[in-house]
Amino acid sequence: KKSLDQTVENCVNQVGVNLNTASSHLLTYISGLGPQLAQNIVNYRTANGAFTSRKELMKVPRMGAKAFEQCAGFLRIPQAKNPLDNTAVHPESYCIVEQMAKDLECSVAELIASKELRLKINPERYLSPTVGMPTLKDILLELDKPGRDPRGPIKIFEFDKNVRTINDLREGMELPGIVGNITNFGAFVDIGIKENGLVHLSQLADRFISDPNEVVSIHQHVRVKVIGIDIDRKRIQLTMKGMERG
User: What residue numbers bound the domain in which 71 lies?
Assistant: First the structure.
């Protein structure tokens, strides 16, 4: 449980959460927020409506300056009056971004929207005893892709809808599948029916391999071709030769 909690906490603090929709349980994973303070945020939201700015957090009971400092950068407010409230830029750094916009004679929203304007920023101009280059680089990276999500795109997987039983199979069919088990002699692939198909070691790749683990892994998405069907023995032979890798 401790390991899972740490993983969730890392994910939540990387991605951030929507202050106006997050549950009290999800909010407890945000740095600086305990169960009571998280519940106070939800209660305040219920009583007063959606938050319109991060500053409004200071009105939440028991929200002190230290807790605000720790949590504010991870709480997002889409459609906030200040566009920086929907980024990972911390409120204490807003003045830096506002100065950048002022120097370029534009608004903060225009600065976020225009890559051309951001390319004109010389970060060295904004160095100070309290703000170093790493902080400035983080700010510019966030302005370049506000609210960036470190998660990769999700690949949606679907079995062939026309194949429901072994009787629907025909030799030469190309199908999507998921590697379910790996043995010394090959890999068993789930193609969406009761029976798994076998891709023999000799059919796993266009080159010679001695170990199936060289080319496949458990739960990998693959494309396979049906090369043999034995309905009586409920056996399906597949190949991955010449097929696009999943």
Answer: 1-81
Model pTM score: 0.57
- The DSSP result for 91-124, as a single string, is GGGHHHHHHHHHHTTS-HHHHHH-HHHHTT--GG
Reported as a pLDDT band with limits 50, 70 and 90, residue 143 is confident
What gap in Å lies between CA 231 and CA 135, rounded to an integer? 65
Give the CATH number for residue 225. 2.40.50.140
> How many C-beta neighbours within 10 Å does residue 81 have?
8
What's the rounded Cα separation, in Å, for the pair 160 and 139?
46
Q: What is the pLDDT of residue 79?
A: 85
Query: What is the secondary structure of 166-183 as a DSSP string?
Result: GGG--TT-EEEEEEEEEE
User: Is the pLDDT confidence value at 97 over 80?
Assistant: yes
